[in-house]
Amino acid sequence: MKTFEELGINEPLRKAVEELGFESPMPVQEAVIPHLLDSESGDVVALAQTGTGKTAAFGLPVLQRVDPLLHKPQALILSPTRELCLQIGSDLADFSKYIDGVKVLPVYGGSSIESQIRSLRAGVEVIVATPGRLIDLIKRGVVNLENVHTVILDEADEMLNMGFLESIEEILSHVPDNRKTLMFSATMPPDIAKIAKKYMHDAREFVIGNRNEGAANVRHIYYMVNARDKYLALKRIADDTPNIYAIIFCRTRRDTQEIADKLIHDGYNADALHGDMSQQQRDLVMKKFHDRVITMLVATDVAARGLDVNDLTHVINYGLPDDTAVYTHRSGRTGRAGKTGVSVAIIHSREKGRLREIERIIGKKFERKEVPTPEHIIEKQLYNLADRIERVKVDEEEIAKYLPGVSRKLEWLCGEDLLKRVVSLEFNRLLDYYKDAPTIDVIDEKPRKERERKADSKPRTDREKDRRTAEAGMARIYVNLGKADGFFAGNLIDMLNHTVPGKRVDVGRIDLMPGYSLFDVNKDDAKRVVEGLTGAEFFGKRVFCEVADTDKDYASASRRKSGRKRADEAVTDSDETVADFFKKKSRSQGKKPGRKSRK
Question: In angstroms, rounded to a whole number, what is the distance separating the alpha carbons of residues 171 and 135?
């Protein structure tokens, strides 16, 4: 293994990094630094996960190459978020501690542009910027990039995901063509390859690990539960890890706030981070998380970009993202700087296919775990308390003057009684909560069709699906849209999210038939779902929805309706609904035998 001196880093920079605890170069630094220090070398594309030492890999050679006497921007670092911009700026300031005259300026939105303009006019050597604010400053004529010899695109895949491609192209048009360009990315999607081909010259690629793989020292585990039990599973995971320090990723802002509110209500040190919050609110939450005032941060992917925390114990996926690259970014936030970490996925059965696809792409196997039982959680917490008692620092001299009075107060208690009271003082809330804790069902991972056909070799008919009852605590809902209408599970979820007011609806089993569908929701949500969906439109078709009745023959009604449509090409969306069919059927069954209806 080489030293920083052997890589060509000068003495002032070496002194600074040694004080910061850098003992030897990390793999990405060892690969990239010599290439960047050589002014004759071409451009660089470096594929490396977050937390692998990327900032020092580009920061040290950039600082070594700038001229402190020029007082003009010579290096430009673009980052996707304000938080990452500030983090890079802080790191470069630490690296340049012993270099006189080198100024590093972070420029980003959400902060005073006037103060940034004043700093630029005073002279800076390195600019760390978010694309939007930098373009604003360029248009105001206060940034001149004609002396820039190095451009770094950090977390390039994230910048593309956030829609910064046009902004990057605009910025590069203001930088000399003979610049050296460096692109750092955790993954290599096709758009990254296109940028490299279009804007980079003689680019050399460095891959630290394998393309698109997760960090090597991260365990990937998953818990499979019913959709309604996800939050209960989350709490049990937290309770089973007494010293948890985690980011919990949710798909939407609404989910993020809802989960955070529930955790806070249930006594956890948690808070939310999402795009509906002001910058001041986000800064406060992130400071509390950095200071460990809160130990569980519930966040969206966009809001958490640039959040730099090195010692997370867990990343928890409250459902899997659609894009594997997003999962790679999430899991890469733990297990950093040589430490181990855990990436957890809390999923239901319909997400199993997505899990297997992620496994295939990152080249890692997820470990199936059972949701911790109340007994296991309480035992874990008790051992943690014992460990804290063993390790507590005792100031013998200071506490001695108080011990006689306390001893007289408690002398009637024997050692065992005293221990029981100490434990109860700490754990009464937890013991009371788990005394009547519900059972979280274990999901059989065999495909449902395989289980059903094993029990009965004949495939179930639509009528048999109609008769299936919902699981305990759930209600079965009918909707007059099916596969023949181009209606599938994703369409149902989308309709629920956009047409049903209030909190997000958790969906259980879904049965899709050609002319209609049946699905399960929590009983408490059933009325709200029916009212929200009824009267909506799906590609011009008016939606009818009701709580399903197992005595109704929805399959026959659907076939009769489709038969009428085939017989009459003039039939329109004003056709009778299944509800109309049942009303007519009920009236016809109520007529007396032999009696003719009036004409």
Answer: 7
